[in-house]
Amino acid sequence: MQQNLELLKQLKKELHDSAPKIEGMIKATDKSFGFLETSKGKSYFVPPPQMKKVLHGDMVTGTLQKDGDKEYIELDTLTETTLNRFVARVTYYKDKLQVTPDHHLLKKPLPAFTAMEKGSLKEGDWVVAVLKQHGLRDGRFRTEVTDFICSSDDPSAPWLISLARHSLPSEAPETDQDFQLQEETTERRDLSELPLFTIDSASTRDMDDALYVSARNEGGWTLTVAIADPSAYIALNSETDQEAAQRGYTTYLPGRNIPMLPRQLSDELCSLQEGQKRPALCCQIDINPDGAIASDATFFTAWITSAARLTYEEVSNWLEQGEPLQRPEPVLNALSALKDLAEQSLNWRQENSIVYPDRPDYRFKLDSEGKVFAIIADQRRIAHKMVEEAMVIANISAASFLKPHGIGMFNTHAGFDAEKLEEAVTVITEQGYEVSAEELATLSGYAKFRRQLISENNLWLEARLRRYQSYVLTRNEPESHYGMGLEGYATWTSPIRKYSDLLNHRLIKQLLTEAPDLTALQQAMTAERGEQLDQQKLYNRLAERDTNQWLYSEFLQGAVEEKTVFEGEIFDISRGGMRVRLQENGAAPFIPGSMIHKERKEMTLDNNSGQVFIKGEVCYRLGDIIQVQLIKADTQRRSLLATPVKESAQKDEAVSD
What we know:
This protein has 657 residues and is of the alpha+beta class. It folds into four domains: 15-80, CATH 2.40.50.140; 85-154, CATH 2.40.50.640; 189-413 and 471-547, no CATH class; 558-656, CATH 2.40.50.140. The protein is built from 19 helices and 31 strands. It has a five-stranded antiparallel sheet. The protein has a five-stranded mixed beta barrel with strand order 6-7-8-10-9. The chain is globular and about 95 Å long. It starts with a helix and ends with a helix.
């Protein structure tokens, strides 16, 4: 009998070993079963007993088994799990601590333990947990709660959870240091009498740039850019500097920011407040009447005193609508000169580099409890463009200044990804454009083609080409910025908010000395530093996206109930449906394929061409502006669903009205 059992086991093992092996990702469902999806898009059924061993998103290998005519996967090994560190909610089962991951397809409570004080965690609390044991790899699931985020009813939950999810700090850096000016390596000029001014949002406290413009006798202008100089207070590799390096950026979320530097510096000592003497790094740049930069900029350190704290709204209202602006005459004259300079600079860049069309910024208005009561689409007005052009000119000038030295933190963009260039050319030429890979690989050829697309307002092709683009990267060697059509770009105008800008400050100041010693800065400005800063920038953007989605899903509940119709731009088409950007408020609801056309077999959602075909006819394309109605605002998933408003429905509504 025992011998027969052994033979049966051996037979089963041989059958298992000879069966096809499948690798892929676990896709959970709302039911107890799931699927194993391969990289080629094929799906295999995973029965409920097997799904108990894995989690949505796990990379696994399994064996394809058959039960009559039905195929299913028997799971073998875990290759990788995406659920290493995760946000979860606390729950208890028979007084045993458990956590439920914050994902709609990860509903399984997982056993947990914690080193926190017993009883400190309540049902529904938000926490950070780490997976210690996995069901498929270790035979059971076990997690450790490492950090408390907030209680279940904390009104700050959208912000705190989004920050925790991406390992970002939720508070300003803590310090009891009394910051003092460091010993200077260059003598600062006294510009305290120059009527410099700042232009920011009304709520801005960390004001880091002040401007002044004067007309040149020979035509054109001289632009003076004064940037707050936190390097005057912070030594390289000091405790404050190391914290700033780790953060990389000030994190901006709706209604709040988490500064890179202690608020004593960012909002006070370094902020260019009106009437306050401040250390600054400055440059003066001559601009030709046509808006082109006339010559290399002159960089120097200085003491400045802002003569006026201005807002975008009041400056724009004065220039665009003639509203009074009660400021000293020298400030008003400089503002008018900056307007003229900015308009010519913008024209020059539109003709010689790349300037993309303006898009609104969306601003959440919050009440005292942190609830959104309105979303404002802030259009870019003349004052925004004035400041932006001044900053662009200053950053172009910094790149030119640093390039001969072969060191700096440069913002770079390589245009189309080298591996995707030929495919991009195929897409472009199919639309009748005469370009070659050789041309698009050059800065001038890329910029020329982009200017043509922009002038023709070809939103569909523009949207299609996004998938072939390379990323904007921070490099420690000078490279071109194809995305802006520039030979070089090195930001230094936001050292309170960006660590790369703070490093460039130190570098520029060191190069202004008689005998520059770059050893320490070369050790700080490495390729790895650029990669780390790019990663932190991504985390900041993801935290902002997550917070926005949470707030949108809460705020737009009323729009679902009221069946509000919005205009939206299609910006993504996938196999499952398409996504639109609502022009009124910036929300990005998903339109499932079932909402586009009932007969799925008659419809093709083509991601490659960026089009939706119904019965062989193009029905929707990337870049199209369509009308949609929200049908669901899911606060648990923080997602929005919408359906297109068909033309016939609109006509019926108009008749009934």
